[in-house]
Structure formats: structure tokens, C-alpha cells
Amino acid sequence: MFETVVVATDGSEPTERALESAIDLATRFESSLHVVSVVAQGDHRARATAQSTLLALTGDVDHPITRAVRSGPTAETIIEYAMTTAADLIVMGVRGRDGPYEYNLGSVTEAVVADSPIPVLTVRGRAN
Questions:
Q1: Global pTM?
Q2: Rg (CA), the chain
Q3: Cα→Cα distances 12→36, 119, 120, 121, Å
Q4: Which one, of 44, 42, 46, 20, lies nearest residue 33 by Cα?
Q5: pLDDT by residue (tens digit) across 41-93?
Q6: Considering only CA atoms, which of 80, 98, 88 is closest in space to residue 120?
Q7: CB environment 43-67: b (16+ within 10 A), e (fewer)
Q8: Across 4-119, where does the E strand assignment appear?
């Protein structure tokens, strides 16, 4: 069903839950799994931090993973990365909210959902 799954992470709790779901899907469907983090252009410190975070989040995973850190506008860069890897699915975390903000996805996730030609699975973080 899914040959290639891309999960975007910034190290936050909602994106960690999205990563758990992406790993589960990739394992069940024997899919290629890509974990991508996006940082500001030219920010070498953020790039090094993102690389360390990706390794810390995925180092013990018993499934082959391609880790990538990219620079650029976050939503556009996630979509571009997913398209260049021929992804069948993008997985992204959203903050768990209650009340009138329950359906607010967050600006990056909302932009990816709105603009991506690839299906996007959103995984809700724990309610605050």
C-alpha cells in the first residue's frame, strides 16, 4: 500500500508520536522510511542539532531509515523532499488541543495538508 513513507519532525512531542506511527506503518507495509527535519537556510548550529535529534529519535529503531536535514521554507521543503523520494504518504504531528482550538493543525502541517499532492496523515499529540 505504501512503498515510501516520509515523516517530518522537529523533535516536539507531537512529531515524536507521528514518528512512532510512521515507523509502525513502514514496518507493517515493509515500506522505505524517510525522516526529515527542516532548518533555516545557513543555520549550521540548527542543522547539527537537527542531525543529533534525528539520530537520537531513530537510533534504536529496528527498521531501515533514511535521515535527512534540509534547509528552506518548512512546508515547501517537506513537500519537495517527499516528492523527490516518490513518497506515497507524509506523516506529520499536530498538537492535541481542546475547546475552540481542537481542529487547529498548526501552520506548517496545515500548509502541507493544503498544498501537498501526496496524501498526508496527521497524528494528534497528547491533549494539553
A1: 0.88
A2: 14
A3: 13, 22, 18, 17
A4: 20
A5: 888 999 999 999 999 988 888 899 999 999 999 999 999 999 999 999 999 99
A6: 88
A7: eeebbeebeebbeebbeeeeeebeb
A8: 4-8, 32-39, 65-71, 89-96
Q: What is the largest CA-CA distance in the chain?
A: 40
- DSSP category for residue 34: E
Strand pairing partners for 4?
A: 32
Sign for the CA dihedral angle at 53, 1, 104, 74 comes to positive
Greater confidence, 12 or 68? Answer: 68
Cβ proximity of 90 and 82 under 8 Å: yes
All cell numbers assigned to 27: 514496518
Non-local (6+) Cβ contacts of 8 within 8 A are: 15, 18, 36, 37, 38, 78, 90, 91, 92, 108, 112
> Is residue 22 a contact partner of residue 128, using CB atoms and an 8 Å limit?
no
What is the number of H-type helices and E-type strands within the chain? 4, 5
